[in-house]
Every structure is written in C-alpha cells, then in structure tokens.
Design brief:
alpha/beta; single chain; two-stranded antiparallel ribbon; about 20% strand; Rossmann fold; 10 strands; eight-stranded mixed sheet
Length: about 280
Amino acid sequence: MNMSEEQRQQRLAQIKQQWETKRTLNRQLRKIKTKIGVYSAKGGVGKTTVAVNLAVYLADQGFTVGLLDADIDTPNAANVIGGGDVPNMVDGRIQPAENWGVKVVSMSQFQENEEEAVIWRGPMIHNALNQFLQLTDWGDLDFLVVDMPPGTSDAPLTVMQTLQMDGFVSVATPQKLATLDAKRSINMIKKLNVEVLGVIENYTGPIFGAGAGKQLAKDMNLVFFGEIALRADYQDDSKPTVLVSKGVRAEYEKIWKGIKGRLTELEAMPAQVAAARATEDEAEA
C-alpha cells in the first residue's frame, strides 16, 4: 500500500528523532570509557550484589565508576549499595547519587513507593532505559557497571543493543538450573557478537556446593574468575560487604585480576580506551 504524503512526513520525522536520540546517546556514552554488564538469564543468583560490590571495589581502587541499575521491573541496586544519597534533577537532567564513591542511577530512586510493582510492557521499558541514558550526567567515567535485568527477552536485549557494552560477566550458582540459565544468557550475548569476559560462581559453600561455575566456564570455553562464598558477612549492611569483609575483598581482588586481564586483552581498559580516542581525535583534527 502506498504511503500518503502525511504518512511519509511522519515516518521521516520518526527516523530523524531516532537518529537524534542515537547521536545524543553516542555523545553521552563517549564520556564512559569501559562498560561492563553483570548478567544471568536467571533471577536470584546475586547479580545485583556482585554488580554493587564490583563497582565499589573499582571505586576503592581509584577509578571513577558509575552503577546503572537496568533492571526496571525489580530495581534493587540502590538499596544494596546503601549510603543514603539520592539523585537530583537539575534543569531536567539527572545528577546521579554518589554512594561509597560510585555514581548510582536506579528506577527505585524515582518511585514514590518502592513496594509498588512496575508493570510495563517492552516499549515502556525501552523508553525508560533510553531516558536514563540520555538524561543522566554521568560525567567522565572509567567504568560503568550495569546490573542487567534477568531473562533473554526484550529488557536485556534493549540494554545490549543500546549501550554497546565492552563485555559481560556471567553470574552462575552451584544449582543445575542456574547453570543452564547462565548458558542461555551466554549464548544470547554471543549471538549479539558481544564479548563474554568470563564467569563468576556465587553462593558457594557447604549449603549449595561449588564447582558448577568452573565447569560452565570450561564447557563454554570461557575464563573462570572465581567463587564468591555464601557468608554471614553479608548480614552487615552498614557498608557494601567488599568494604567490611577481608574474605569478600580477597574474592573480588581475584575476580578483578581476571577481569582486568580480559579487558587488557580486548584493549578495553580505561587507559587503553583513552589512548585510542586521543589518536582518533588527532586524526579527525
């Protein structure tokens, strides 16, 4: 069916708006050197706890770090990181909260009642994520750690396609079903031609066992970053656990060593990215 002139103009206006949105996003994202997603297709594997502690650990190492809670349905990152700071709106733009040296943006920070369910269809989630990305003044970041939504459908797909991630850390647990779902999420990432940095196994110990994450990494030909034990230390919510537990800190030191190695191999460490962009800018000048 032929389009009317009015329909053509509407379509052109839509294309122009999409192009402007993409250009604005690219400008925003250029200020972020390295973007890491923490992901699993299964909920309840401790993704948020891993994302928060990794972000806080990186900030404690002297990096400038942001944490984006991309789980619009059940956002918890702001509660896990704690600290009490909340975002401000200045001239219609979001100034992220900063807690423990990490800039944080989460849907929960904009809910009047965080106990209310967020019941949105895919397009609304897509729009919310785009607004977060367009309207947030992250400033210059070395790392943006993204707490991914679970599943393999619209919400994680939107994040992956919009954010142009440098790589993903897959979180597994010792249970067989969680390992199966981790495989599904890894296969989704690979289909989108994005790097899987490696695998972390969470909740290890005498209750759930251990070893499934290491086997998963072997089966999928990936790097195994290490285990995170199920510890009573996590009951202390005065600070992110990586700041109060020597045992947890040692685990994240090992994990970071592995992630750093993979990012260096991919030329995605902040210093490498900054050097590459400086070369690009000189070539364009």
